[in-house]
Amino acid sequence: MSVLSRPSVAVDPRLVRAYRRLLRVYPRGPRREELLDTLVECAAPGRRRPAPREVVNLICHGSRARLGRPKSRGIVVLALFVALAGGFLGAGVTNWLGWQRVRPLPAGAEIRETVFPGLTVWGGGDAADIVDQADGEGIEYGYAVSWVKHTAATRDVAAYTAGVRTRLEAAGWTVASVDPPLDQTDVVGATPDDRGGSFTATRGALGLRFSDYYWPGRPAYDGDGNATYFLWQEPPSWLEAVTWLGFLPGAFLAWLLTGWASRRLEPNPTMSTPAATGAVLGVLCVVPATLLTLSGGGPADETAAPSWQGLAFAETTPTVLFGIVAALVLLAAAAQRPPHRLPQWRRWAAKPLGVVVRRGPSAVVALTAAVSLLTGLGVYRLVTQHTLPGSCTPSVPSGIVDPPSARMSHQARVFISARATEDQRNLAEAAIGRGYGGSASFTGGPRSSGFTGPYCSHGQVRAEVAEALPRFWTVELASPGLFGGLAAEMIAMPAVVAVQHV
User: Fold this and answer.
1) Per-residue pLDDT tens for 385-443?
2) Gap between the Cα atoms of 82 and 338, Å rounded
3) Rounded CA gap, 276 and 268, in Å?
4) Exposure of 53 by Cβ count < 10 A (0-12 exposed, 13-18 middle, 19+ buried)?
5) CB neighbours (10 Å) of residue 133?
6) Predicted structure pTM score
């Protein structure tokens, strides 16, 4: 007979309710009621709430009970690491949600006119909040690049740089750092007349990096430098707090799921070992990568994001791997106790096949013929639309192609006629650099890997048709808005037939 049902026992209902809430940390079952009876029976008269020591004790032992393996200490260690991984993933989710509240970069002309008054400015536009660094070894703030071709004013590097600083400070910007004078003593090919000036400024959540470089004496096709500024959006001050608010819910959910899977797999030792191995692999996907991210000591340069601010973006690949491993483990745990109706579902699924078999050979022949017909149609379509030469009619771009869907793309293609001379190709490649295009790779003919990709989404092009298609460069842009300047520079070059924002 339960203590609570005895009429002679007077128990404060507030204490009972508090114990019931605490005991939810234990898995469902008779153990909860047994513990409730014991706790109420041992409680001092007049008690209204559990003692702090009882709260800690129940949470610790209840959490351990959810793991379902009272003789194992290893499961506790494993569950703690899985909870750590889940906490990091939870922090990554809230970090990503926080970044969604960051406003886009200013789209107006106010900053352009402050830095480059009266000049034709290329670039600008918006940029992603976080992007991969050019060397692929980290992440940094996404930035928009704006630039101008040199004029007589911008070639006077010291005077023009000082003027930009003065105008920015008058507009409310704070100059955070000024680079020392350009020193190219050890640079091969540098001349004593080379000049450079750069500084970093901030205004609220905006960061700006200005640079002006002048390299006199260079050939016209290489250009003699330019003046540029990078603009990026720093995260709000509350992002760090929001990021780590997600740690506890993520860790708690990971602990609960680990306990659920552990209890389900406990009767089946043959499945427990692979599941534990999978859990270890999942932890190794997330925890080391996150700890490396958190170990950063701040920005490496003016645009690099402090590590914790880009937690969600640094965890993208580890999260996918962890999710795959976790899904496999949870599916294995769920399969240990299939639903009671599953055998019935199997019988229902088997009925149509049984009916066909009972109806005799004619039904089997008809079914086989239908399957063969569908298979044949699929093979015919695959051959005619994908593998036969001539199964694709190539679509060749012309002029400047900049669809709205490519607004945030960092990739462009420059197409040049197949009949272009070597000099024309060299001049076009030099113009890519002049137009502030980043690294460019040239695809020079039908035998090159991926040559027909820009012309056909599927299928094969006849050899004589492919031979006449334009060759192309694939250009990686530092920021999406640079496409306009690249296109304006390239479309005027001889033999260039199209510039496409991919």
Assistant:
1) 445 665 788 888 999 999 999 988 989 999 999 999 999 999 999 889 887 766 789 99
2) 25
3) 12
4) exposed
5) 14
6) 0.69
